[in-house]
Amino acid sequence: MTQPSQDDQGPAVEVRECGEPLVDLRHQEALLVDPAVAAALVRVGVADRLVTAQTLLPIGMRLLVVSGRCPVWLHHTGAAADLRMCTGDGATVVMDAATAARLGAALVAAGLVGDPDRPWHWSYGDLAWARHRGAAYTRYGPVADLAGPGV
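Below the sequence we write its predicted structure tokens.
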């Protein structure tokens, strides 16, 4: 599926869909998912990058996924997750400047981009990612049902 982007937030970026399936992060042992989250669906490539970011965090610090794919505009492609930091047992860590810097460094090193207006929101392959990277097209477009193994 190919379609031009429909907003005025920056240079024109072609929205493409590669067909990569969604996976549920609740099945990723390396990541913690907030128990209140019904399903933390993201693309396989996003899941891989979140696991990579987890390996770059200090021992005892964990990514806590608080949202995955949903009908909300920022999450409709399966390319984004809302994240917090927590301890190994799931206790939320206060996001002071040093903690935010550690989290950001790990996520950026793994290939994700953050939203400066929503510091908890990180993505890969969507419109925000493409614009940030200067890419001509996205990797992921809107999905209806691309559930893969482990969903």
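DSSP finds three helices and nine strands in the chain.
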